[in-house]
Amino acid sequence: MRRATEVTVSGVRARAPWWRSRAAQGVAYAAPTAVFVAVFFVLPLLLVGRMSASEWPLLAGDRGLNLPDNYTDVADNQLFWPAVRFTLLYTAIVTVALLGLALLLALLVQEARPGVGFLRTAYFLPSVLGLASASLLFWGLYSPSIGPIGPLLERLGLVDGPVSFLGGSDSALASTVFLVVWKFAGFYMLILLVGLQRIPAEVYEAARIDGAGRGQIFRSVTLPLLRPSLALTLILCVTGSLLAFDQFFILTKGGPDNSTVTVVQLVYREAFQRLDLGTAAALSMLVLVVLLVLNALQFRGLRRPDEM
Amino acid sequence: MGKAVSGIAAALVVAGLLTACGGGGGSGAAGTGDPEGVDDGATLTMWTRAATGPQSEALVEAYNATHENTIELTVVPTDDYQAKVGAAAGSGELPDLFASDVVFVPNYTSSGLYADLTERIEALPYADDLAGSHLDAGTWEGARYVVPHTLDLSVLFYNRELYRQAGLDPDRPPTTLAEWDEQARAVDALGGDVDGTFFGGNCGGCGVFTWWPSIWAAGAEVMNEDGTEADLDSDVARRVYDTYRGWAADDIAAAGARDETGTTWTGVFPEGRIGVMPMPSTTLGLMPDDLDFGVAPIPGPDGGASTFVGGDAIGVAATSDSPDQAWHFLRWSLGDEAQLDVVAAGGDVVARTDLAANEHSAADPRMVTINELVAEGRTPYSLRFGQTFNDPNGPWLALMRDAVFGDGGSLESDNQAVSDSLSD
């Protein structure tokens, strides 16, 4: 205060001290988050960037720059392109199956009817399980030696002989997709349910008065108004599927015959089987760039002009 | 309170001893170099992998019960062990003691993760009797870094009860691969939920452990001496693959052999519905009491016998703050008391050849069979072992599966892929 008064007296235009300016206050408010982001995101990212440009064996540590060897190693890896192809295929299948089912479930339990609370809980319950625990559970269920599902199907006469859930490349993919859909459908249902309940009843009423049928209402009212929720689930689902690791690591280990190797499994393999952090980091950087581009595209595509 | 005081007193005494020794140990992690080690109530951390966990647990339990030092043992899932050690090495958080699958030891010694134990090992009165293949694996540029911890040999287990039912002589296990094949098929013919044999068909480590002895038994090699070139498409190897292929094709192997990733492959035989299969010797002490089974060496196509001398070797981490205390445990674990009253009594293979014939093994002819095999067994050496043979997405598993479940037509190129990985 005193200083401000002096300034006024001396005839210069009154100015608050720098630490009380709007800009400084803004910086102060943002600082905690900025520090958090810097320590837990930017610094590790720089480290990974550095690793990806260095010869960096897991057991021996940094051995100096070797750009671009790690990146060419990635491209030379025979499993790289099959893994990219498989990851994209898996993402496409999971996204369609998961979001379709989640929307169906959300529509089923949207209205307050007797028993709906039980159904909502039942659908959501698998989500509280960790993905690794769920994978282990299904690994046991699918197991040819201890799993109950195979013998059950056999007894029901649906199949002849033992079922090999993880033995073939297609069945391993299908079995994993089933697990993931079971695990996450309830979670995405919840997001969509919140979206559905945000749509005002008046809109539906107006549509019905105008003579719209059920299908028309769904296409022209529900879907457009559900767009933000759909966008959120789509981004979560695609990102999560592209980063798939736990379920395959536990259920298939990339097998049979390398048919279910995802890109993140390659990262793990480079780092902990081949003990080469440099190449693993290079692969991680590539995945990061792809995810950034993809997420940016999704945000753009799903953003509506009035929601800017 | 009294304990704390005595602990402090002991620490002071030790500190005095250390000063008296004049820090002759040189580089920090090697400690004082005192060949006896130190037992002063220190708390030590130790890691081992699940595959040999029970053996480590028995040793640690016996040591903790009789000594001032306390060892806190962490058993890590076998598949995650390399990753855990690697990550800990990178961040300098290795435990005081860590065991390692003996085939991975060269990776750790060459990266300087273990403290040099050369002088201490040579000062042991029974230094020459320690399992040689483990010591060799832990020798890097002339220095010794590890001692044998648990010996795990691959041997045939056969179910004597099922042999009787199938009209086979329960005292005549197979001596050639062909006999093994006949006997497995005879047991399998019993039908019901009984199967002839079992193997981990989606598990590279299992293949290395149980298939290679059949190749060695015939006098053939799997790699060159430096571990940089594979010889896995030889005629002998092909005959071994063909036998397994027959078991897979005719359902002689139990359901799940094709998918078995190694997680549960030793859990099938104890249920008593498998005729004859190769398994780790460490499972001998874990068999149910009511199972009537015998063990036999793994035969080659035309006879002979060999085994994979696996298991864990153990050393002191180069970063350990308590190398003297850690060595005290290692020295004790190799002594007569631990080897006989803990290891041999638990039905496991002793780490010293001079104790191979002991009161416990004498009581169980199966133990004698296994102990005698140590001399004929092999421990393969390669700096690229894990990424070539244990990696579930590596080239050896591809070879295995092509040779046994595929058409076997690409054996030559598969072998080349293994060589490429070995010389990477």
TrEMBL record, chain A:
The keyword Translocase does not apply. It is found in: Cell membrane. The chain crosses the membrane at residues 27-48, 88-109, 121-142, 172-196, 229-250, 277-297. One of its GO terms (cellular component) is plasma membrane. SUPFAM superfamilies: MetI-like. Pfam families: BPD_transp_1. It is a multi-pass membrane protein. Keywords: Cell membrane, Membrane, Transmembrane, Transmembrane helix, Transport. GO terms for biological process: transmembrane transport. Residues 84-298 form the ABC transmembrane type-1 domain. Belongs to the binding-protein-dependent transport system permease family. This is Sugar ABC transporter permease.
From TrEMBL, chain B:
InterPro entries: Bact_solute-bd_prot1, SBP. Coiled coil: none annotated. Keywords: Signal. The keyword Signal applies. The keyword Phosphoprotein does not apply. It comes from the Bacteria. Residues 1-20 form the signal peptide. PANTHER family: ARABINOSE-BINDING PROTEIN-RELATED (PTHR43649), DIACETYLCHITOBIOSE BINDING PROTEIN DASA (PTHR43649:SF12). This is Sugar ABC transporter substrate-binding protein.
